[in-house]
Each structure stands twice: as structure tokens, then as C-alpha cells.
Write a structure and sequence with these properties.
133 residues, mainly beta, 6-stranded mixed β-sheet, 5-stranded antiparallel β-sheet, 11 strands, 0% helix, 50% strand
Length: 133
């Protein structure tokens, strides 16, 4: 049984070059990741009171294109947003598409105790005009 899963959060918001706040609850660490950067965190199980919280830093102007969040299908999450959001679950990934506008969304990810025994996975947040992973 895998104790932690190393999860890499990637910022691919190229068009607007927004930063992202990433908070890891278990370590009480906060990270600001810029365009084309990433951070890898060990995600423990939810019963250990661990989660990762992601939000986009507000900047001048509105986001001009849809934002796409690409998540592992095994993750449990709470997502809050303003506007029409599309959630697609297909195979081993979950894709969330957020319409253009202000970056007013937040994502809280947890790992259930029934998670498969992989050792690492990834989350990509980027502009829908790009092909990523």
C-alpha cells in the first residue's frame, strides 16, 4: 500500500501568464507557481486530514480563453466557480473547462482511502488553446 502519492501541479496558463496559489494542508505549505512552472507535493489520504487547494491569482484584465483543468480520475474534489463550467470524466482523467472571464474558481483535492496504489500522478491547469498532456 502506498502511503503518499506525489502529485505534480503544473501551471500552463500561457496566454494570460497568471500565477496560481497552491496550498498543501498536511505540510502547511503554500506555493505560488508562475507560468510554465510546477510543484510536486506528497498527497496523503483524506482520513489523515490532507488536501491540496488551488486557485488562480487575480491580475489585470479577464482571462481571454477557456481554462482547462486536467485531473486524475481517482481524486476526490470540491470545485467552486462562477459561470458555466463543463466537467468531463473519461477513462483515467477528469477534465474541467471554465469559460473566459475573471479567474474566480477554487479547487480542493483529496485522496480517498480506496485510491489505487500508484506512486505519482499529475494535475495540469492551462489555456484551452494549447495541447497539454
Amino acid at each position: 500500500m502506498v502511503k503518499d502519492i506525489n502529485i505534480t501541479i503544473e501551471n500552463k496558463l500561457v496566454m494570460e501568464k497568471r500565477d496560481m496559489n497552491v496550498y498543501h494542508h498536511f505540510s502547511r505549505s503554500a506555493h505560488m507557481i508562475s507560468h510554465n512552472s510546477s510543484v510536486t507535493l506528497p498527497l496523503k489520504q483524506a482520513f489523515e486530514d490532507d488536501y491540496v487547494h488551488i486557485s488562480v491569482v487575480s491580475g489585470p484584465g479577464q482571462l481571454e480563453n477557456k481554462t482547462v483543468l486536467n485531473l486524475p480520475s481517482w481524486i476526490d474534489f470540491e470545485f467552486s466557480a462562477v459561470g458555466n463550467v463543463t466537467v468531463i470524466h473519461s477513462g483515467d482523467r477528469i477534465v474541467i473547462k471554465i469559460p473566459p472571464g475573471p479567474p474566480v474558481w477554487q479547487l480542493k483535492m483529496t485522496r480517498s482511502s480506496s485510491t489505487a496504489a500508484q506512486a505519482e500522478d499529475w494535475v495540469t491547469i492551462g489555456d484551452d488553446r494549447l495541447e497539454f498532456r
